[in-house]
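Collaborator request, handled under Task 6.
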Amino acid sequence: MDKYAILLATYNGEEYVIEMLDSLERQTNRDFKCYIHDDGSYDNTISLIRDWIGDKKNYEILEYDYDSDSKEAGSGHVKNGAKNNFMSMLGRVEAEYYMFADQDDVWKDDKVSKLIDEVERVTRDREDVPTAVHCDMYVVDDDLNVITDSFIKYIGRDIYRNKLPELLIDNPAAGCTMIINKALRDKALYYNDIDNIPMHDQWLMCVAAATGKISVIDEPLLYYRQHVDNVMGAESESKTDKVIRNAKDIVTGELLREKKEFHEKEVNLAKELMYVPGIDNRTRKFLIDLTRIGEKNKLDRMEFYRKNGLDRKEHSLWMRLWV
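Structure tokens returned to the collaborator:
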């Protein structure tokens, strides 16, 4: 079993993936094994990676995992998506600690070192406690020019809002900012329907909040490219633009549909969390009540959200009005 594993998911990433790998080679702490799983690329991603790896011993390409019948148009390959890619690697790789890498980012030289130092500090006395640590990141353009030095502030969230009810609504931690221990990994593999999990990072954070602990490094430790191909991009919107957008969506009916889907996602996520072992009775009751929220009347639903802290950093009142 490896001490530290980095899981790198790739898909048609030939333009940037070598920069990502180069940044791993510059890490001040290189005591890790990097596992790479490609999601059926039809460009030169894998051939470039193979050439780059050469005889390096701490990098390994995992065999393609045919675990879906979905197709990416024109590829001729099965495509599972980023979430399934990372979750598949979590199940296949055995390590004491796990980090997650996106193909188009660049890590600061001390990212691995700082994440390891913090997770080992937090788990020093209790390695069996499921634990996640996450940091902030720079948002950059295609050429690594900095747009903002805080991804989390840029998208209007708070790095310290890590309680379970908050995470069900707004997750501040991207997977590429995280390190988790094996205890959290083992818990996170208990789920019934992966389609009820929005993304692997939100799932890991929710499992950590429900069964263990979360710690924060409040500084940017990597460069997150913001471009049209991001699976989950950074979005910043002024209050005026938000009002205008919502007004248009009310007229078209799009707002009601979006809010309904938003609340269905958190309910479905709560359903999956109930499969995770080790959740205390108080948290389990909260999850059960949330999954039954549709049985309550409008005012009781709003009160349930308020009382249990199901809110956002901003616009919580408006969110509750749409429950």
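The cover message to the collaborator said: "Residues 68-78, 236-240, 242-253 have pLDDT under 50 and may be disordered. DSSP finds 13 helices and nine strands in the chain. Please let us know whether this matches your experimental observations."
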